[in-house]
Structure formats: structure tokens, C-alpha cells
Amino acid sequence: MRKNIVAGNWKMNKNLQEGIALAKELNDALTADKPNCDVVICTPFIHLASVTPLVDKAIIGVGAENCADKVSGAFTGEVSAEMVVSTGAQYVILGHSERRAYYHETVEILEEKVKLALANGLTPIFCIGEVLAEREANQQNAVVAAQLASVFSLSAEDFGKIILAYEPVWAIGTGKTATPAQAQEIHAYIRSLIVEKYGKDVAENTSILYGGSCKPSNAKELFANADVDGGLIGGAALKCADFKGIIDAFK
Ligand code: 13P
Prior knowledge:
With 251 residues, the chain is α/β, with parallel strands linked by helices. It has twelve helices and eight strands. The protein binds 1,3-dihydroxyacetonephosphate (13P).
């Protein structure tokens, strides 16, 4: 059976001391009141080595927000999947719409990143989702299908190791959430594409998270949908009480 997962994406927020404080606060809160789902926090690279020893691995997984599309060498400023693993992190967000839009990450670049992440034992949280103009033109299905090309070249075994996150770009940081019906519709479509490509068993075991203005007040109705297996949380992951409120939607 697929897992329910709530993952936080801190993006470029929190200095090291603030990040450590948030990770400790969350670890204390979830140790006192255990979650009913997997919990992951994805932090800036520089936080990883400090945060991983602070959290109980059995309760909170730690991930990066990106990794390089190259193994190692003369790529100034880049951080490899192997380096991420060496911090104790287990996950990596790849394909976030902000990386696609601002850092020109293409389907091909993302395919390399996913392969390197998997080769190093990281679990990719692979993001897909359409922009507003594409939604208004009713192109969302074609857009996510094209974005999935980065992961549809994987073997069934490797595909079975990834987590997907559907994040409509028009809902990210805008306060405008997809309705539960909109989320369910496209999540079911994404799962149908996985059925076509890898068969029913793989599709049934793939966790598909929703992301975009998810908060404690709307998490329960979003996660209640058959094909929504949790959330990838931006803004609300920056406050312990809000993030825990979303995690508690699975209670
Ligand atoms: P918000 O929750 O701030 O809308 O961000 C969602 C997101 O981009 C998570 O990756």
C-alpha cells in the first residue's frame, strides 16, 4: 500500500539557526504526538548536516530541495546527490516549478537529476504542475503528461522508489488552492498514466502529493480524496503549529 506523506519545502527561508530551531520544535512536537503519516522536511543545503542528527529518523525524514545533474567535478556552486546523502538526508525535491521557471530546468536535465538521486539512494519527490494560462486553456493534463517524461524513462523498479507531487503553479504561494475535486481529478489522471506505463500495482503504490497553498484549514478535505496521498507544503511548513496542523489532517 502506498504511504501518506506530508513533506515541507522550506524553499530559501530560514538561516541556519532558525532552521535548527524549527527542526527541533517540530521533532519535539511530533515525538510528543506521533504522526499518522510519513513526515519529511526539505531544507536548504546548508541546513542538512545540522538538521539530520537533530530529528528522530523514525518520525521525520530530511531532504534537499535540489541536487546537481552531474556526478562531481568542475561545476562551481553545485551540490551533488552523493553530497546530499553524506549529510544523512534521504530525500530530494526535483522538478519544482520554481526550478523549472527560474533556473531553466528541462525534462532532460531533470531526468539526469532523478537518475543520479536514485543511484545514490535518495528518494526523489518529483514535482509536476501547470501554470495558470495552461489551466485556463484546459491543457493541464497534457502539461503533466509531458513533464512525467523525466521519470517515465525509469525502470518499473526505480519508478517505484519515487514520490510524485502535483503542484499547480497558480496555487503556489497565492492562497488560491485547487479545489478537492480539481485535485482528485488530475491526481486520478496522473495515476492512470502510471497504470498505462507501469501497470496497476506500481500505480497503486505510488504516493501522489498535492502542493499549493495547503494549510491546516484545507488539508483534511484535500487529503480525503482517493488519489491524494498527502501534501508538499511551502509557506505553512515554516511554522511548527501550521505544519503539524496539516500533519494532523491524517488523524
Ligand atoms: P505554498 O504551500 O507556499 O503554496 O508552496 C507550495 C510549494 O511550492 C511546495 O513545494
